[in-house]
Specification:
By secondary structure, the chain is of the alpha/beta class. It has nine helices and 16 strands. The strands form two sheets. Strands 1-16-2-3-4-5-6-7-8 form a nine-stranded mixed sheet. The chain has a seven-stranded mixed sheet with strand order 9-10-11-12-13-14-15. It is globular. The termini are close together.
């Protein structure tokens, strides 16, 4: 497993096994930095650059005698200043978020698997369309976790839905409600208009040349008969080329939410968003039981995984309503369907996950607070086999 790199810095290289790209890791809704966060980000960036310049100055002039020309290798023109900045480089200061959930997996045998269609799928699709301009088979496999808006809001902004010459084939997998939501809002499978079609935006299936097909993972064998416009299979592994995708149910309050384990070439990645290890006071509560059962399933599939992405929207104190988040006052968040960072830390250790990325960030958590959390996770990881970090968009991990 290679160290994570960022999309902008990533040099093209062959995929040896699996390449995981995190296009969106924000929870609940897309966010953009506040002026205060931008100011703090700029301040820290400036401090890092000044620190590098001072260190360079000490190296070039240990006796304290120097000139601007000797530092810049020429007069202080705009060109020389910019050249010097490129020479000392920019620090890696992540921003942690922006777009909602979307993770892309490219395999060595040429398949592309996309997990969730949050707003991050927009940039994901732009890159994919550019890469596949001359590709004959344009089949994309989209696996949805659940039907909530932040996990499907980006699909109508995805460029591959609108390619007319040699249209893309979009094979969608998920629960009944995930497929039903896409069909009600856009008519992707039934090719029909409903009362919900134009609630989110004015797009329907007739605007999209892409060929959509659906496969439902049946999670409840006793569910009442429903009209479907897609295939149905048991909640069982799917084989795509040399890759195995195993769906399993986690706990997200009322909604059915699926996590996925992706395996290829002896390596594994677990994608688990919107899972809550419930901390209610009544152990006999049916929701508590469902949550505990889901946690057992999750730990089973996480055992010895190479990489995992998990929902860590809260700390335990925030979850229990003992502390607020940002400017938001304390609110009890039991049954809100999201996880706690402390539970992820314990899970990563007990399941021996090599690298765990904590995502689905709360919109109220400021950039400095996210950075502080990431620093603390890095400290916990020092000298240990189970590495923890805060998820950020544009991170690439090669397995």
């Amino acid at each position: 497993m290679t160290e994570p790199v960022r999309l902008a810095a990533a040099a093209p290289r062959p995929i040896q096994n699996m390449r995981i790209t995190f296009w969106g890791v924000q929870g609940s809704c897309p966010i953009f930095p506040t002026p205060q966060s931008l100011q703090e980000y700029s301040r820290r960036l400036a401090v890092c650059i000044l620190g590098k310049a001072v260190a360079d100055l000490q190296r070039k002039a240990p006796d304290g005698h120097f000139t601007i020309e000797s530092l810049l290798d020429g007069p202080p023109t705009q060109i020389n200043i910019e050249a010097y900045q490129r020479q000392i480089g920019l620090p890696e200061i992540p921003f942690y978020g922006g777009e909602t959930t979307c993770v892309q997996i490219e395999t060595a045998d040429g398949n592309v698997i996309i997990l969730d269609a949050g707003s991050g799928i927009r940039r994901c699709s732009l890159q994919l369309v550019g890469q596949w301009q001359n590709r004959a088979d344009r089949t994309v496999y989209l696996f949805g976790s659940h039907e909530h808006l932040d996990h499907r809001s980006g699909l109508t902004f995805a460029r591959f839905c609108y390619v007319r010459d040699n249209p893309f084939n979009i094979r969608v997998y998920g629960s009944y409600h995930f497929l039903f939501a896409l069909d009600q809002h856009y008519g992707l499978f039934s090719r029909q208009i409903t009362d919900m079609t134009y609630v989110d935006d004015p797009i329907d299936f007739s605007h999209m040349p892409a060929n959509f097909s659906g496969t439902e993972f049946r999670t409840d064998a006793n569910a009442p008969a429903r009209q479907r416009h897609w295939d149905v299979q048991s909640i069982a592994p799917v084989r795509i080329g040399h890759t195995t995708i195993t769906p399993f149910e986690v706990y997200h309050g009322i909604a059915c939410c699926l996590a996925y384990k992706i395996e290829h070439g002896g390596r594994s990645f677990v994608f688990c968003t919107d899972h809550e290890l419930r901390r209610g006071s009544d152990e006999t509560n049916p929701r508590q039981r469902r949550s505990r059962e889901a946690e057992e399933r999750l730990r089973h599939y996480c055992m010895n995984a190479d990489v995992a992405y998990m929902d860590g929207q809260y700390s335990i104190k925030e979850y229990l309503g003992e502390e607020g988040i940002g400017h938001f006052p304390p609110v009890r968040r039991v049954d809100w369907g999201h996880g706690c960072v402390e539970d992820i830390i314990e899970r990563a250790t007990q399941c021996n996950i090599k690298r765990t990325l904590v995502g689905h960030h709360d919109p109220e958590r400021s950039w400095p607070q996210r950075h502080e959390l990431d620093v603390n996770l890095a400290k916990l990881s020092v000298g240990k086999p189970n590495q923890l970090q805060l998820a950020d968009s544009d991170i690439i991990i090669d397995l």
